[in-house]
C-alpha cells in the first residue's frame, strides 16, 4: 500500500490524477482508475466478459476511443475529446466524414437553458455518434462543410468491478458502494470513490467490528447488476445495511440519505433515531425514479436495505452532468467532512443489532456477576447514578430476538450510542448474544 | 334480446311494467319480473325447492295470493290488494271471516307518525294474516262487523335466483347484485335491478375485461343465502369485489357506498383512492345492523369484499317501506346518472390489480423494448414529459405481488386511471403479469 | 374456615396480628403469616428446598433470627429488632462483637434526606450484618465502644409459596398475586395480601365464572421465580390476565395499573376500554425498571400478560421502605375501596372473551329462536328498543375468532359490561362458544 493520509492535499492530488482519465462503463480508463485507487486500498477485481447475460441485460463490448474531434469549415476544432473528454458522446461509434452544418445538427448536443455548459451524454446500448458543446459554441457555428472524426473501436473484452472486505465478528454485512464510470466529472463521480476510500481507512482502524464491511466500486447500473449477479444471494442472506455514496461535495452543509425501498433496514431505522440525538442529516423516501445503483439493489427481486447518500444529488443541482461539475464546484473539504460524518453513523450502526437474552426466564442474577448491588439500600443520589443499570435492565428484558438495540434505546429515550457500555458488559458475561 | 336503449323513456316504460306486479320472496310475481328483465339481458335461473335447507334456514313454500280485501260494515273495501298490493301483509295465510273492529285491530298495521303512508309489512316465517293501511284510514274505521278475505295458498314450489356473467381475461370476479322481492315499491326495489341492467349493457361494450362480471338478482336475505350456498366457495376463491345495489333514486346527488366488513377489498380501497381524484361519492363503514344482502356476504364464514351502494338508504328516508316510495319520489333520471357513475368506478376497478414484475432482479432493459430513451440526454422540457416513464418505473419497482396498482398510484400521487397506458404497455411486453 | 367479614374492624384486627411478625423471603415469619391468612381462605403450600436451582437463581438457606441489638457505650439499645424488626438488616449473619463507633459506621444504614425514617434494608444473597436507624439517632451516637449482637442462623430449609384456585367453566386462567416477605411495613406489604383476601371472597360469591381465578402469595422476586418454575408452562398456555397487587393504601383516590410488557393481554385492553365508560383508574406503560414480581412474569422467556396495580407505588411515595410506612399512613378504608374497584374490573373481565359464531355462514335464523321479530314492521319507538338486538347482530357478525367482546363493544360504542345480556343469550342458544 502506498502512503495514505486524510488531508486536503492528499485528496486534492489524487483527484487531479483521476479527473482527466476517459472513463466509461468498460474499457481502459475504468481499469486505470481502479489501479490508481488500489495503491491505497487492497482492491480485488471481478471481470464479466463482453456478451455475458446479466439478468435482463448483456455486458456490452468495451469502448476504446483514441481521438474525437469536429473541424469547422475553417479547420478549427469546435469539439475535441483531447480538450475535455465529455465533448464526445460516450460510446460513440467510429466516424470520419464531411457533412454540412445542417446535417451535423442531429449529432450535436447542447443545453439552451445552460448556455455555457457542455452536457455529458452517453449511448451505451444503441450505436450512435455525436459531439457535446455549449449552446454558445453551437450558436456560433458557421455554415459550411464540417469534418467529424471519431477514432473508436468496440472490442470483446470485459466489464470490471473492484472490491475489498474488512471482516467483522459476525456473518452480517454492511455494503458501502460507489460508482466509477463517468469521465471528467467531479462531484457526480469522483467524490464518491474518494469518500469511500476515506471510510475504508477509518473503519479499518476500529478495534472491533461486529459486521463485515464490503467496499465496492463499479460502473453505474450495469456494474451493480454484475455485483448482484455474483453477490445477490449472499446479500439477501447477510446484508443488514447498504449505502451508495455519490455527490459528496458542493454547498450543502448536511448529508441527505435516500432511504431503502422498504425503509426497514438497520440503517434506515438508525438514521431516524440519530436525528433525535443531535445528528442533523436529512432523510428522503426511496423512489425508483432517478437515482443510481440503489435502484438495482432495491429492485423487487432483491429489496435489499440499501440507502443512497449525497449532499445535493437528491434535490438536483445546476452543474449536474455538465462541464460545470468541476473540482472547484465540488470542493475537497466537503469530502473530508463527509468521511467524518459517515464514520460517526457507522459507529452507531455497530451498536445497532438484535440480541437474544441467554437467560430469558425471569431476570438473571446480576448481583452474582457484579452487575447489580447486593444490598437493597437506595439513596436518592444513587438512583441518579443508575443509568447504566437501567440500560442493562432494558436490554435484558427486551432482547427477545424481536427488538433491536435501536428500538430498546427508543423505549428508554436515549441514543443507541449511549448504551454501548451496557451492551458490551452483557455480551462479555454471555447474557446477550447477537441474533 | 329485445331492443334496449339507455333513455329515460325506455326505463320509464320498463318501470311501469314491473311496478304493479305482486312480488314476494317466492312465487309467480318474482318469476314474472325476472322474465320481463330477461328480455334485455340473458338471465339464467337457479331454483331451490321449498324445504331446501340453506345454512341455518329453510326455503319456505311459495306464496300465491289471488285476492285480499277488507270490507267495512257498509261493504266498502277499506283495504284491497287489487288497488295496491302492499295493502295485504306479504305472506298472509288465507282467511275469510267476519269480526268486530275491536278484534280486527290486531290484524291492521299503520304508522301514526306517518298518517298518510301505508306501510309495507311481511311475515315470511311465521303464519299470520293482516292488512296495511294509512293511519288516517284506520282512524276513520267505523265500529261494526268487518269481513276479512284473503284468498292465498302455500304451495310446494321453489325459490328462484337469476344471473348472467360477462367473462373477463382472468379467473377473478366482480359481483354486481340487486334484490327483487318487494311488491309495488319504487326506490327501495326496482331502482336496483334497473341500474343493474344498465351496468350490464355498459360493461358488455368494453373492448376488454380483466375480471368476470357476475350480475345476480335474488329475493332479499333468503335469496342471497341461496346464492352463497351455491357460489360461496367460488366467491371465496375468486371474488375481488362485490356490490349490492339499491335505492338508486331520490334526491341525493351523490352515491354513498357502505364498505365491506373488513374494508380491505379492491373496491373498498379504490373508493377512497378515487375520492382523492375528483370522485365525490360518500363512504360509510360496514355495520351488520340494518342493510341488505351485503350482511350475508359479509357474514363471518364468508367475509367477502362486498359493498352496498345507494343514494339515501344508508341514512334513511321518510318514504322507506311505505306507499310513498313511488316512481315520482324515486325519479328515472337519477337511475341513468347512477349507471354512469358506477361505470366510471368499474372502469377504474379494471385498472386496479396486483401485478408481478416478470424481471424482478434489477431493472429490465427498457431501452431494448422501446420503453426508455437509449440516449442519456435530458432537457428540462423533456423531464416534464416523463410522466408515463415514471409510471413504468413505479409499476416495475413495486409490483412484487404485495402491492396493487392503487397503492402504487398512491405512492406516486396520481389516480390509478392515469396509469392505464403504462399498465397496458408493460402487460403487452410481458413485463407485468396479473397475480 | 374462620369467620370472615368485609369490614374495617375485621381488616384492622387482621392487620394488627400480621404487622409485628419478622418476615423475610424464607423462614418461620413467612410461614406464620401464611397460616394466619389460611384461616380465611384455603391456601395450599408449595415448598422449594434451600439450594434448589430456580432458573438462574438458587433458593437461599432459611434465615432465623432470635435477637439483634446494638448497645452504645452506656449500654443503651440504640437499635433493637425487638422494638421494630426492620432495625436489623434482613438476612444479617450472626455477630457478637465490640467495636468503635468509627468501625461501626460501615454497618449502619440511615437516610440523611429523611432524618426521622428508619430505612428497610436487605442483603439476601451476600453475607453481611448491619443495623438500620434514623439519621437523627445516628447523628446522636456517642463516641466509644459499641456492642453489636445478632443471634441469627442460616438453616437448610425451604422457601414456601401459598395459593388457591376458584375454578371457572373454561381452561383459561386469571392470576391474582401479591407478595409477603417484608417485615413490619404496611402499605408496601400487608395491603396487597389483605386486598387479595377480599377479592377471593368477592369472586367466590359469583354464580358463574368463565375463568379460573388463581390467588398466589409468595416472597418477592425469588418467590415469583419459584411460581414460574412450577407454573410457567401452564401460564403460557392458559393465562389470559394477571395482576400483581401492592400498595393498595395511602392517599390517592384512584388505582393505577402498570400494564404488561406487550400491552396486549385481555386486562390491558379492558383497562383502556373501561376508561371510556366511567372507570377512573390510571394506566402506565410497563417498564423493567423498578416494580415487583410483574418483572419476572414479563421477562422475555415468559411475556405473560401480567399487570401490576397500586395506588401510589408506580409514582413513588415518601414513606416507601421505611418505618414511616405504617397502618396510619396506609389506612384500612382504602383497602376496602380497592377490593370494590377491583371486583368491578374483574366482573367486566368475565364478559371479555373471544367467541366463535357456530353458524358463521350467513346470519342464523334468529326468529326461530325467539331472538328476532318475525314480523317486518318497525315503528320509530321500537327502533329505540333494539339495543339488545343490535348487540346480538354485532356479536354474531364479528365473532369469527379474531375479535373479542371488548373490540366488538368498541366497534358498537358501548361498554362490554352492557353486552352481558346478549352474550349470555347467544351462549345459551349455542350460537356463540368461547374460543
UniProtKB/TrEMBL annotation, chains A, B, C:
Pfam family, one: DUF2172
Domain DUF4910: 13-351
Domain UCP01524 winged helix-turn-helix: 354-433
Location of the DUF2172 domain: 62-153
Database matches in SUPFAM superfamilies: Zn-dependent exopeptidases (SSF53187)
Stated name of the protein: DUF4910 domain-containing protein
Organism (species): Pseudoalteromonas fenneropenaei
Amino acid at each position: 500500500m502506498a502512503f495514505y493520509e486524510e488531508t486536503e492535499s492528499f485528496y486534492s492530488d489524487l483527484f487531479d490524477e483521476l479527473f482527466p482519465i476517459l472513463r466509461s462503463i468498460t474499457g481502459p480508463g475504468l481499469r486505470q482508475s481502479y489501479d490508481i485507487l488500489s495503491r491505497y486500498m487492497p482492491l480485488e477485481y471481478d471481470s464479466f466478459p463482453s456478451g455475458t447475460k446479466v439478468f435482463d441485460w448483456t455486458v456490452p463490448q468495451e469502448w476504446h476511443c483514441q481521438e474525437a474531434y469536429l473541424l469547422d469549415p475553417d479547420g478549427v476544432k469546435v469539439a475535441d475529446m483531447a480538450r475535455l473528454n465529455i465533448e464526445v458522446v460516450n460510446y460513440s461509434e467510429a466516424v470520419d466524414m464531411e457533412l454540412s452544418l445542417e446535417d451535423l445538427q442531429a449529432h450535436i448536443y447542447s443545453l439552451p437553458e445552460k448556455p455555457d455548459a457542455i452536457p455529458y451524454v452517453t449511448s451505451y446500448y444503441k450505436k450512435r455518434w455525436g459531439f457535446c458543446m455549449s449552446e454558445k459554441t453551437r450558436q456560433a457555428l458557421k455554415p459550411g462543410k464540417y469534418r467529424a472524426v471519431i477514432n473508436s473501436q468496440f472490442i470483446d473484452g470485459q466489464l470490471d468491478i473492484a472490491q475489498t472486505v474488512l471482516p467483522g465478528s459476525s456473518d452480517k454485512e454492511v455494503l458501502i458502494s460507489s460508482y466509477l464510470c463517468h469521465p471528467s466529472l467531479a462531484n457526480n463521480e469522483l467524490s464518491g470513490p474518494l469518500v469511500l476510500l476515506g471510510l475504508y481507512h477509518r473503519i479499518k482502524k476500529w478495534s472491533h467490528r461486529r459486521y463485515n464491511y464490503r467496499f465496492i466500486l463499479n460502473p453505474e447500473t450495469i456494474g451493480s447488476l454484475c455485483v448482484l449477479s455474483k453477490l445477490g444471494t449472499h446479500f439477501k442472506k447477510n446484508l443488514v445495511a447498504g449505502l451508495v455514496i455519490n455527490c459528496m461535495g458542493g454547498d450543502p452543509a448536511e448529508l441527505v440519505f435516500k432511504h431503502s425501498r422498504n425503509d426497514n433496514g438497520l440503517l434506515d431505522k438508525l438514521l431516524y433515531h440519530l436525528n433525535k440525538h443531535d445528528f442533523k442529516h436529512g432523510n428522503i423516501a426511496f423512489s425508483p425514479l432517478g437515482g443510481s445503483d440503489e435502484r438495482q439493489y432495491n429492485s423487487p427481486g432483491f429489496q435489499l436495505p440499501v440507502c443512497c447518500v449525497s449532499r445535493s444529488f437528491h434535490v438536483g443541482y445546476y452543474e449536474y452532468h455538465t462541464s460545470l461539475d468541476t473540482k472547484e464546484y465540488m470542493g475537497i473539504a466537503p469530502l473530508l467532512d463527509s468521511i467524518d460524518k459517515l464514520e460517526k453513523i457507522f459507529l452507531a450502526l455497530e451498536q445497532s443489532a438484535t440480541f437474544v437474552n441467554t437467560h430469558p426466564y425471569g431476570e438473571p442474577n446480576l448481583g452474582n456477576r457484579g452487575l447489580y448491588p447486593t444490598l437493597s439500600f437506595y439513596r436518592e443520589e444513587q438512583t441518579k447514578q443508575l443509568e447504566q443499570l437501567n440500560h442493562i435492565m432494558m436490554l435484558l428484558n427486551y432482547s427477545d430476538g424481536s427488538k433491536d438495540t435501536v428500538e430498546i434505546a427508543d423505549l428508554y429515550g436515549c441514543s443507541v450510542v449511549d448504551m454501548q457500555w451496557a451492551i458490551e458488559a452483557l455480551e462479555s458475561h454471555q447474557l446477550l448474544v447477537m441474533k
